[in-house]
Design brief:
The chain has 501 residues and is an alpha/beta fold. It contains 19 helices and 18 strands. The longest helix is centred in the C-terminal third of the chain and has 27 residues. The structure holds zinc ion.
Amino acid sequence: MPNDRIVIHGALVLAYGDTAARPADIVVSGDSIEAIEPAGTAQSPRQIDATGRLIIPGLVNAHTHGHGGLAKGVGDRWSLELLLNAGPWINGARTGQDRYLSTVISAVEMIRKGCTACYDLSAMLPVPSVEALNDVAQAYADVGMRAVIAPMIADRTFYQAIPGLLDAFPPELRSLAEAMRAASPDATLAPIREAARTWRHPADRIRLGIAPTIPLHCSDDFLAGCRDLAAEFGLPVHTHLAESAVQRTGALKRYGTTLTAHLHRMRLLGPGFSAAHAIWIDDAEIELLARHGCALAHNPGSNLRLGNGIADIRRTIAGGVTVGVGTDGSSSSDNQNMFEATRLAAFVSRVFDRPPEDWIAAPEALQMATEGSAAVLGMADRIGRIAVGYKADLVFLDLDHVNLVPLNDAINQLVNGEDGAAVRDVMVGGRFVLRDGKLPDLDWPRIAAQARDAASRLAEVNAGARHTTDRLAPIVSHFCVGLGRCAHDLPRKLAAEYVNL
Ligand SMILES: [Zn+2]
């Protein structure tokens, strides 16, 4: 019997396959769950008393951006395109320490709100570097969270990516937009290759991925470069797919086909491929994603916040695609609260013209936020369940918290009512990273002070870039509203037929 065996006793446990929480002992050995025994029967000299706690599997955030940690609250009525327009100042001029702090802040919020793993698309301007990737990895290691870290990359600027946008600017503004340049494919991909070659973090804790950020922002050569690099090193690939109506119309204009069909043509679709949002996709795209074993991240909070629309996830699931839940980054969603994202995933499924039996039910929403998201991270065989052989990634909620008093139905209350406030302890890989509401491994007051300093310094350094993009914003907004409206006005079925011509 290994001497690191721990018995967690006294709690109600939401174990895999159960429809209700029940009293049980969880036996943890090393970083994994060795057994789930009837309450009061498991023996070990090392015991954790979890009386008064409800233990659930750690929630998994299928799509976020750690770089958003320092940029929370910077915008309000921003469409996706206005957010992308603001990118140079909200994400620019970051030092290694800024990247570290930003990621720590996001990770701390996730842990505090019951999330133990995430897929982080991290912006590293102007190009990723091995050091930058290690700074982000170190942030997750220090907080104690699992993560897939995928540098968010492109070889076109936002202004080059949207067909017709540059032509919409008057000459002076056009020259400002044209002066911004993306790095060359080689300059972007070479450091990722080096990072993949020398990656020192265990793949089941902190895994490297690659994120050609938005297909329209990437030339075909660049997409092929990402694909080949991913194949060479076994990296998961993630992108923002048809997040806005603008992207759907832009794809029809640029490729003469849908975004998913283009990715298929580029041979990017496969079991290691996942995508976020997927609001503006049609049935043929769902079929392509399902046939190639791709997974999707559903980000209902971000989709509402940016006015992108509501992804019809019931249709996607019925089409055979695995779906997880994500918050998206703090500059677009704005918190890192997986309970909120999960609740929204259930709620927004009810606005479509369908009977209640077709709405996303609470057990299904929770499954999406755990097992579904785990599949997006490529970790479905080890996280997302309280089950024997799975990692001991466990969230302990206080049954005396008002959110859970009285406990009538644990799953319904977790999905429909919980906001993360009842989370008391969080364990990742058998080790507490949040204990009685405190972060044992982190000097939070110091992190918070450094983050405040970093945010003020960055606001000053990026003031010029902000002035420039503020001048471009009105044209971006009006042009993109018009371009997006083409997709709004075109009924989905008609659009699908147009695409299939
Ligand atoms: Zn995103």
